[in-house]
Amino acid sequence: MTPLVMVHGFLGGGAQWDGQREALSDTWDVITLDLPGFGENSHLPAISTIEGFADWVITDLHDKGVDQFNLLGHSMGGMIVQEVARRIPKQVEKLVLYATGAFGVLPGRFETITESRTRATRDGARVTARRITASWFLQGESALTYESCAAVAEQASLDAILSGLDAMQSWSGGAALSEIQQSTLIIWGDCDRTYPWSQTEMLWKTIPQTHLAVLPACAHAAHLENPTAFNILLRDYLRLDL
Fold this sequence. Notes:
By secondary structure, this protein is of the alpha/beta class. The chain has one domain: 3-Layer(aba) Sandwich (Rossmann fold), CATH 3.40.50.1820. 42% of the residues lie in helices and 14% in strands. It has helices at 18-24, 50-63, 76-87, 113-123, 125-134, 146-153, 158-169, 197-206, 222-225, 227-239; strands at residues 4-7, 30-33, 69-74, 92-98, 183-189, 210-215. It has a six-stranded parallel β-sheet, sandwiched between helices. β3 (69-74), α3 and β4 form a beta-alpha-beta unit. Keywords: Hydrolase.
């Protein structure tokens, strides 16, 4: 089967996909990346543009010998994989855009990116990582998987946090959505505090070949809040002959 490459979002890391790797690895080779400045690659220099992240992903997969793959991106990772899918369309079979949108500036986000930048500079990396991670869960810090998720987020340096915010703020992919050639699954939690329905709807209605899945009572980390439903969605979609 074609491998599944999973790209985390802002303050994420490859370890946040452990549940998906365990559930899907019986059928697919699941490849979870750690972007520069985050997770296990927190020692690498931070990147400050979505395009730069996309270049890094393409190079990293080439170096790993991964030439044909399905591609999933979460949040900021969804912006990155849109760029990857457009740059190397023949290598990406299916695309999954999860809790993401077409614009880095997020109207309706729990706080503006400018506010996140100001607070991160004032509060430091660890406090920022834990505070923002809490916003991903419907139950905040009380969520069962919050602590493990926050532990991954805490690996990011302040430079990586600020660079990631800059990357999102300077990116816009709305005009290029119609160029995405792959069959694309859009996944959204209906209580997401980061990406409102308007962003999800735009992806769904503008990308030529899309399918939509809305997970009820989930916020920005649906793969951790309801992993059973999330994993079934992925498994079924990747098996479809489209």
